Amino acid sequence: MSQLPGIGKRTALRLVLHLLKQPKEQTGFLSQALLNMREDIKFCRSCHNISDTTVCEICANSGRNHQTICVVEDIRDVMAIENTGQYKGIYHVLGGKISPIEGVGPGQLNISSLVEKVKSGKVIEIIFALSSTMEGDTTNFYIYKQIAESEIVISTIARGISVGDELEYADEITLGRSILHRVPFEKTFKNN
């Protein structure tokens, strides 16, 4: 139990002792639910979000703007942005960010499928919504270089999110305003 994120040894012990006090059937239901989750949850073939179907609800929704793609690091970022109610496009989940120190290069991320989407000509805007960290900025810049020649708008969320903060911890109002007041990506690294 202590191997789960955010669960220390004390909390793990409390959870185990609680489970031991419960009827065996209840623990069995929990075990079965965890097994079902691992078996039934998959990744959307289009955006790499979690889903219980081949294509997630967001990508399957014809009411969403499929010409605008918000690029995020992971599934928690999709959830955070969706909670704002401000974004009506679709997503692309990279599955991480470029981090040479941790041994993560572009090849381990879902970047090539994003580049293919842009080259298909159906995309008019890419919004970079990665965390304001060195790794997030490096990943943004790498993708930008891959798609810069495409005639699309490339923007990034406004920097109302503090540098070094993770999106999942931002409050909904700040995150929502960052999405609404995004800026062209080129302005984040050029001196104007």
Keywords:
192 residues; alpha/beta; Dna Topoisomerase Vi A Subunit, Chain: A, domain 2; 2 domains; 5-stranded mixed β-sheet; two-stranded antiparallel sheet; 7 helices; 7 strands; 39% helix; globular
Summarize the structure.
With 192 residues, the chain is of the alpha/beta class. 39% of the residues lie in helices and 14% in strands. It has a 5-stranded mixed beta sheet. A two-stranded antiparallel ribbon has the order 1-2.
The structural domain count equals 2
Structural class: alpha/beta
Global mean pLDDT: 90
Instruction: Give me the CATH fold name of the largest domain.
Output: Dna Topoisomerase Vi A Subunit, Chain: A, domain 2
Helix percentage: 25-40%
Which residues sit in consecutive blocks of at least 5 with pLDDT less than 50? none
The biggest beta sheet reads:
5 strands, mixed
Strand content: 5-15%
The H-and-E topology, N to C, reads as: HHEEHEHEHEHEHE
How many individual β-strands? Answer: 7
CATH class of the largest domain: Alpha Beta
- Strands of the widest sheet, in order across it, are 4-3-5-6-7
- The second-level CATH architecture of the largest domain is 3-Layer(aba) Sandwich
Q: What this model shows, in words?
A:
The chain has 192 residues and is α/β, with parallel strands linked by helices. The protein has 2 domains: 9-40; 61-188, 3-Layer(aba) Sandwich (Dna Topoisomerase Vi A Subunit, Chain: A, domain 2). It is 39% helix and 14% strand. It has 7 helices and 7 strands; from the N terminus they run H-H-E-E-H-E-H-E-H-E-H-E-H-E. The protein has helices at 9-21, 24-40, 57-60, 75-84, 112-119, 134-147, 172-180, and strands at 42-43, 50-51, 65-72, 89-93, 125-128, 153-156, 183-184. The strands form 2 sheets. It has a 5-stranded mixed sheet with strand order 4-3-5-6-7. A two-stranded antiparallel sheet has the order 1-2. Strand 1 and strand 2 form a beta hairpin. The termini are far apart.
